Amino acid sequence: MAESNQVHVEAWSLDQLAKSIFFHRKLHEWKVLEIADQIDRVRGEELLWDDLNISEKAWSKVIHRGIKPVIVFAHPHVLQTIPGSAGYYRMLALVSQKSMKRVGLNLDPYEAGRSIPDTSTATAIARHLNRIVSALIEADEKIDAREFDLWRGMAAGAQAQGSWQNTKGESAEKAIREIILQRLQRRKLISERQVSATRIDLGDGRTLVFADEPDIAVLRDDVPLVVVEIKAGIDQAGVLERIGAALKSLRRARQENPGSVTVLVLPDVAMTQRARADLSINTEIISHLCSLKAILEDEHERERFFQILEL
Length: 311
Prior knowledge:
Elements: H1 2-29, H2 32-40, H3 56-64, H4 69-72, H5 76-81, H6 85-92, H7 97-102, H8 108-111, H9 119-139, H10 145-167, H11 171-186, E1 199-201, E2 206-210, E3 216-220, E4 223-230, H12 239-256, E5 261-266, H13 273-280, E6 288-291, H14 292-297, H15 299-309
Helix pairs in contact: 1-10, 1-11, 3-9, 6-9, 6-10
């Protein structure tokens, strides 16, 4: 019973950690703070605010609290000059991307910065969102500027949750990918030539690939330099089968390049005596055996993992 509880605790701990890492990267991926800073620098007093569906009561509340209207209300000029600002105001209105599509306003390309809305579309977006934000402000007895950050945070969290649900089945593998992407972004290792989220040009002749069998590979001229297999399942009954599949993938990499570095990542809780014995007789196939939990939780182990990948 105690062992069973340990397995469940380990599973939930990994799920929590993976989800937190995922949400944290989404925060930066969507540039939530960066866009807010850009909007805060806009000289809103030089803009015309007529006919944008802002109620007099909401406007007065904002002005009397000394809050810049551009921080609260959408303006077509801002939507057209600050990439991603459509997402800022949508989140402030506490509405989802899907619901915006249902009212005939698809904000996806504008939030991603892929395109700029024309004046007519920007005005329609501003009027629609301002009507909602005005109603929210009117519903509050007092307005606190910090509340607007909470509104956006709630909407961003709901959006991240939707994205997470689509990938939860591979949560631990996803977490490893997330920390690698964070590393690449922090060290500016992603080339401008990148064309795919799963195939990343590192700018030095190497390519980082996220795929299946192996889960992660560092290639040069499509020859594997480093390959990583992640077997995140914690069910001890199936661990031998998972290890067998991983060994098959790593063996294939060694056949392509005998000098390739091979890495197997496993959760400690799934290891049985038989599994350890199987691994001990296959050391010629596995260059490094890493603990999943250690990579996610221990900074030194995570750094060692990056050094193995040469990232």
